[in-house]
Specification:
The chain is built from 15 helices and two strands. The chain is an all-alpha fold and 294 residues long. It has one domain.
């Protein structure tokens, strides 16, 4: 009797990864297939910023960490914006991110560069079979919304609709610049937080992991580069803890709060922000100072 050898769950799921590589190929070919004009570059930048906000403020700060409150309709808008960035569904994203904080830079971290290296942390983990499924037990607070479960299952419908709308509105140049080029930069901007923000940068707080602060990554990702701050006190609407730490996503949330779209923005109190100046903050891990979870 023969047995089928177990699949390597860490191997790339090639069939499902074909669109990922195809979008990269299209983005690389864009300057040869479409005019390099200011209006198309502006379209790519605009959609990059809008969809990055969907990831940083929506998928990350709202769904993963519940760092502020909002209405059910705007919750769905944030979910759709996040899904348009082609990083799977809101429940999938939040569940895996919560596990990242729970096991940060340990053997069970889903994308630690210190445990598995750059390739795995940057892109390998998201293409692997091992992380296909949504861990609903990690997002019970979100799974009760049927519209979020529906969007999580059919997350590809959003980027397909976006790509189709761009093509219908502006032809091939709009699709290539607005969708393909913008999406590739979105992917690698987001992935750089996983792979680079645990290796390069400065450490202000003892977090028990490799998280670091990076001004360059903060600019690229609308504030996510203040990663050591974030790992020290995860459940805040801001990740730049001091005025000089630029956090564009937080500025946008403050504006939305002023007009009543979001509310109850969670902020790091002074005892947290200034913990690095005390003996406790310098010597103890974040749990001793904060009692914070993921």
């Amino acid at each position: 009797m023969t047995t089928t050898p177990p699949r390597n769950l860490d191997a790339i799921h090639w069939t499902r990864s074909v669109p990922f590589f195809a979008v990269h190929a299209a983005a690389l070919a864009t300057p040869f297939l479409a005019p390099v004009e200011g209006r198309w570059i502006a379209l790519a930048v605009g959609l990059y910023l809008l969809r990055m906000f969907g990831v940083t403020a929506g998928y990350h700060r709202y769904f993963s960490h519940r760092a502020f409150r909002t209405s059910r309709p705007f919750q769905l808008i944030l979910a759709v914006l996040g899904a348009s960035a082609v990083q799977k569904g809101p429940l999938w994203w939040a569940a895996h991110h919560r596990d990242h904080h729970r096991y940060s830079d340990g053997p069970e971290d889903v994308h630690s560069p210190l445990e598995r290296g750059f390739w795995w942390s940057h892109v390998g983990w998201i293409l692997a079979r091992r992380h296909d499924e949504t861990k609903l037990e990690r997002v019970r607070d979100l799974a009760g919304y049927p519209e979020l479960r529906f969007l999580d299952r059919w997350h590809l419908a959003v980027p397909v609709a976006l790509g189709g709308a761009l093509f219908l509105a502006g032809g091939l140049p709009a699709f290539l610049w607005g969708f393909c080029v913008s999406t590739v930069f979105l992917w690698h901007g987001t992935f750089a937080i996983n792979s680079l923000a645990h290796v390069f940068g400065r450490r202000r707080y003892d977090t028990g992991d490799g998280s670091r602060n990076s001004f360059a990554l903060a600019l690229l990702t609308l504030g996510e580069g203040w990663h050591n701050n974030h790992h020290f006190y995860p459940s805040t609407a801001h990740q730049g803890f001091f005025w000089w730490e630029i956090d564009v996503s937080f500025y946008a949330l403050r504006l939305l709060s002023a007009v009543g779209v979001v509310r109850d923005l969670r902020m790091a109190p002074d005892r947290v922000r200034l913990a690095h100046r005390t003996a406790v903050g310098a010597a103890a891990p974040r749990s001793a100072v904060l009692g914070q979870g993921s």
